[in-house]
Design goal:
InterPro entries (chains A, B): Bact_HTH_transcr_reg (IPR050679), Chorismate_lyase_/UTRA_dom_sf (IPR028978), Tscrpt_reg_HTH_GntR (IPR000524), UTRA (IPR011663), WH-like_DNA-bd_sf (IPR036388), WH_DNA-bd_sf (IPR036390)
Largest sheet of chain A: 6 strands, antiparallel
CATH topology of the largest domain in chain A: Chorismate lyase
Protein name (chains A, B): GntR family transcriptional regulator
Pfam families (chains A, B): GntR (PF00392), UTRA (PF07702)
Structural class of chain A: alpha+beta
GO molecular function (chains A, B): DNA binding; DNA-binding transcription factor activity
Mean pLDDT of chain A: 88
Keywords (chains A, B): DNA-binding, Transcription, Transcription regulation
Number of domains of chain A: 2
Oligomer: homodimer
Chain lengths: ~240, ~240
Amino acid sequence: MSLEFDGPVPLHVQLKQILRDEIMNGYYKKKIPSERELMEHYSVSRTTVRMAVSMLVHEGILEKSHGKGTFISNVPVQDWLGSFSSFTETVKNMGMKPGSKLLYYGKKSIPEKIKQVLEVEEFYLIERLRFADDIPMAIEKHYYSTEIGNELEKYDLDSAVLYDVLESSLGINLWKAKQSITSGQAIEQDSKCLDIPESSSVLLSERLIYDPNGKPIEFLKSIFRPDMYSFNIEMMRTRE
Amino acid sequence: MSLEFDGPVPLHVQLKQILRDEIMNGYYKKKIPSERELMEHYSVSRTTVRMAVSMLVHEGILEKSHGKGTFISNVPVQDWLGSFSSFTETVKNMGMKPGSKLLYYGKKSIPEKIKQVLEVEEFYLIERLRFADDIPMAIEKHYYSTEIGNELEKYDLDSAVLYDVLESSLGINLWKAKQSITSGQAIEQDSKCLDIPESSSVLLSERLIYDPNGKPIEFLKSIFRPDMYSFNIEMMRTRE
């Protein structure tokens, strides 16, 4: 990619966008090239390079290490806990473009645990691969009662924003959620979808959403690429 | 281990404790033996077995799966986010015994990132292996300014509850924390300490604690066994 030297977009903004795309696509491994290399490669001034880089530092995509160069921060998507959001909302908050690809939908009756959690005899699964700026980030398995599943099925599940449909179209009040976060090892199918080596470490989350009457509405199991996703929170100290 | 049939402790409580220790020590892999097997092995009634097992289900250590048996829940230690606690407090809240072993203490000047985060030129590291009921659960790397580190050094770092010392003895107000959670692959040294296979998935956390003036007090990097530790939170829905 090259810069438009007579276009309306300032050079440092163009350079920033190019570097950002290259970083997100895994073009660089740990570091970006030196200032001098970037100046020569893109035929721009040191000032332009510095402005572009410092914008990416500010966005949390790069980190400067004194005397060692500029490193790629590990985790572009920050999921802020404290209130719960959909993947779509989380990715939009990062200034990235959300996307999804339907992997499975339909009724199921195993695993047993899902039936216990949702308090149903049979359930509905919608499994999607989720993207941020076209990079695979997560696999989300949404479990619902068959009643809700049959309604959701009427929408285009490849692109539907499920929480919008639940809240706006089905009039369901997504009130409270209990979430648990740990990690595990990717199985073959998941690692293929997420484009990571088999047996890689993956970040795992389980979340149960209730309506205001305490009725379980959705159980969500998510598998995240840990190099691309983190959970974040600000907390006060417990006083006892 | 066997039961005391003429002791003061009810049989189901004794059996519960034995099963709990066996589970926590990894004696069983995924399931515990059937009711009949436990009855025969410990020479107790079905009622005793059921009471012991249902206490462990209630504690979240076991899960029953209809027609398939009783499974070991993955994650005994639940770290509830929302307010921040020390490892000692978290483990005590689970009804388990906290423990620690000092791995390293002293001044350091790399990695660079720590200096930036703590806003210092040199820092102090206290690295400890943490236990719950004598099972290795986590490696905690506490980073402080050298000023604080020099004070902490006066205590027995193998057993000191660092937040107690900071708050009660040094009069530091641990006010607010920013925490980030993701996962990664264990390196050789960490996997040995945690008694897990090399390259296992580990749960990773970084937390920066500030005093009420916004001055960074502690940066904490933790590595958790994901089969033993999870982060948990209850949240309301974001309204926009």
